[in-house]
Amino acid sequence: MSQPLPTYADVEAAAARLAGHAVRTPVKTSAALDARSHAQVFLKCENAQRTGSFKFRGAFNALARLGEAERRRGVVAFSSGNHAQAVALAARLLGMTATIVMPTDAPALKMQATREHGARVVTYDRYRENRETIAEGLAAQQGSVLLPPFDHADIIAGQGTAARELIEEAGALDALFVCLGGGGLLSGALLAASALAPACRVFGVEPEAGNDAQRSLRAGALVRIETPRTIADGAQTQCLGELTFELIRRHVTDILTVSDTELIEAMRFLEHELGVVAEPTGCLGLAAVLTRRAGLEGRRIGVILSGGNIESARFAALVDGA
User: Fold this and answer.
1) Annotated catalytic residue, options 53, 79, 80, 187
2) Of the listed 160, 210, 307, 308, which one is catalytic?
3) Catalytic-role residue among 55, 160, 262, 279
4) Residue 87 near residue 79, CB atoms below 8 Å
5) What fold characterizes domain 56-147?
6) What confidence tier does 273 reach under pLDDT thresholds 50, 70, 90?
7) Sign of dihedral through CA atoms 174, 178, 182, 185?
8) What is the pTM of this model?
9) Catalytic site includes residue 259
10) pLDDT at residue 34 in the model
11) Exposed/middle/buried for residue 41 (C-beta within 10 Å: 0-12, 13-18, 19+)
């Protein structure tokens, strides 16, 4: 393995590093949600995080650990949108330049926000080009630090602070549902849950069309798929990372999938019952709870709503048109 696996001590160190920079996002409950899910549910609202998603936690933690010489070199990242915005803002706060490789069909809101935070955006075709190859070439050309979106120990540790805060506030949980793309958030959540609530069952949830992680877990080895076509743009990953797969393989209870239709229903429910606007990827965990995928009636359940970056017109088209 090219990097050592992060530990819960790294999550604690990340929490200290993020203090005063990341938002301690709210944990919400709802009688309607409890009635619908037949459980007691606690929602960790990372849509209220800086840049609108949990990604700021990992990006800031990773860049804050760089030395002055590395910061002067700038950073290159690749992302469908939320990691892009997070890296752009974290870099600006730390006095670094940032170049972000983004797909041409990334949500306009995410691309605009990335540029507004001061980053240079380089676009590519996600169905025909390899974003990692493009980013590696740019990093080599510019002499910059390359910061991947999930397969990085400092990224994983930073993301784990979301689950740490949730468990600190809600208390011990029977189960935790976490959205799953490349696995950075799930890996960090697994570290936090293992340390703070060892009896907690942790589920990763990914789109039906992009179930590479589920297939990898079943096969016992990394499975790579074609870029999935799903409304959950933040989970259009082809494969888990080396670090994230190992942590997930060791600690996860199971990996579940939900359909795009179920994601839309979760978005509609959140907006109607709690007044919360979340993007499709952010609703993966909640969709699994609403459809009672894991049979956890009567239990204390945590759900991380990973982000809320979606244009109002796109949200309305999905929720009203479904």
Assistant:
1) 80
2) 210
3) 55
4) yes
5) Rossmann fold (3.40.50)
6) very high
7) negative
8) 0.95
9) no
10) 96
11) buried
